[in-house]
Amino acid sequence: MSDDAAFARLLVVGGFLGAGKTTALLRLSQLFHDEGRRVALITNDQADNLVDTASLRVRGLRVEEVAGACFCCKFDDLAQKAELLVAQERPDVLLAEPVGSCTDLAATVIAPFRRIYAGRIDVAPYSVLVDPARARQLVLERGFGGFSAKVAYIFLKQLEEADVICVSKADLLAGEARATLLDALAREFPKAAVLATSSVTGEGFARWRELLGSGAAAGTHIVDVDYDTYAEGEAELGWLNMALRLDAEAPFEADALATALVAALAGRLAARGAQVAHLKLLIEADGRTSVANAVGGASGTRLSVASGARTRRAQLIVNARVAIDPQALRALADAVLVAELARVGVHSALVESAHFRPGRPVPTHRDAANA
Length: 371
Prior knowledge:
With 371 residues, the protein is an alpha/beta fold. Helices cover 36% and strands 28% of the residues. It contains eleven helices and 14 strands. Strands 1, 2, 3, 4, 5, 6, 7 and 8 form an eight-stranded parallel beta sheet that branches. It has a six-stranded antiparallel beta sheet with strand order 12-11-10-13-9-14, with helices on both faces. Helix 6 (149-160) crosses helix 9 and helix 10 crosses helix 11. It is globular and about 55 Å long.
């Protein structure tokens, strides 16, 4: 089905934790909007209070969320959200962002969606974003930055099933390092189109848009997945989602505070020897958001979305995915946040919190044969 013929086109954009999926979806949404196309989004997480959902909604985008498990395990919820958005928003494009530690999506989400919704919702080629530092560790250094082989297994399987591999944060890559990484990925995963993209500069988005609008088949790279290894890899990560209210007597700079909090959390985790898969923090004030991230390894702390807000009241959301016991992760986050906020004269009140290890994935569907 051509890009213009479908009533709605589903674009699933996966990738490991910290790959920059949400920032990419924001830029991709704007690209479709500039073309005059209506866009709606579906986010996904193991629990409520997702930074990604809040950062998308505050920009006026219609976003639905599937929480409690990955899309593959809550396929019916994903389908219901898609049908709701199609009925209410009549979007030309549905963007779906799965949990970053999830794989086997070609078999458990994309192929079933193509089969069940044939003729009603078109499905674009499946995109997987990769952080360049993690991609380099895997395909060039044959390691994974301190994580176990079971965690690396998830990352590898995500790339094996991709129709399109986007090396995100390409603004951090230059010259020979860029060419070497892209060539290595193309050799390692020859079934996928490999390109460099940057949500900061817009590099590669026109080509990515072209691939997403093509009539190429989606979700046909069905891979063999050892669900014991997959489950054990996910369970190595402690997950933490927190929501807090912030109040201060004097105005504070939201961008600076978001960056400082992430840097402090990442620093304490590094001192504990806890490998960070992804640490993301959002401060929302007066309809504007500051989003700061830290990805383990060489990427460091990054302010991915700047608000420029100066405020006395705000909402803070913290999402952390770290190779550490969840209870220890929660205790460390509590201690760091209290200390850092007090240091700048900001008081906090906990609204909601959840900490856990993901359970074993049990897909609703699995189309094991290539379609």
